[in-house]
Amino acid sequence: MHEERLESRWVHCPYCDTPFDLLVDLSQGSHATWEDCPRCCAPIQLRIEVSPVSGELASLELGRDDDVL
User: Fold this and answer.
1) End-to-end alpha-carbon separation of the chain, Å?
2) CA 22, 69, 21 angle in degrees (round to 5)?
3) Are residues 36 and 43 in contact, defined by beta-carbon separation less than 8 angstroms?
4) Which residues pair with 57 in a beta bridge?
5) Residue partners of 27: CB distance under 8 A and separation at least 6
6) Going residue by residue through the chain (69 aa), what tens digit of pLDDT does each one get?
7) Do you know which InterPro entries this protein is assigned to (predicted)?
8) pTM for the complete prediction?
9) Is 56 in contact with 27 (CB distance < 8 Å)?
């Protein structure tokens, strides 16, 4: 079992452009997941890339539910 490592990122909703603080779990490694916008409740697609060498966040992509990430 991995110890949870959360990193905070300031992002904007791809639907309503509301800025919000997103907690990214780096302990899962690179993965895709979904998060709802805290304002408009739209489903946001997330693609999280974690460096296999450093374990740090390498990239974070956000998209609408019909976007191809």
Assistant:
1) 28
2) 10
3) yes
4) 50
5) 2, 3, 4, 5
6) 456 789 999 999 999 999 999 999 999 999 999 999 999 999 999 999 999 999 999 999 999 999 987
7) zinc_ribbon_bacterial
8) 0.85
9) no
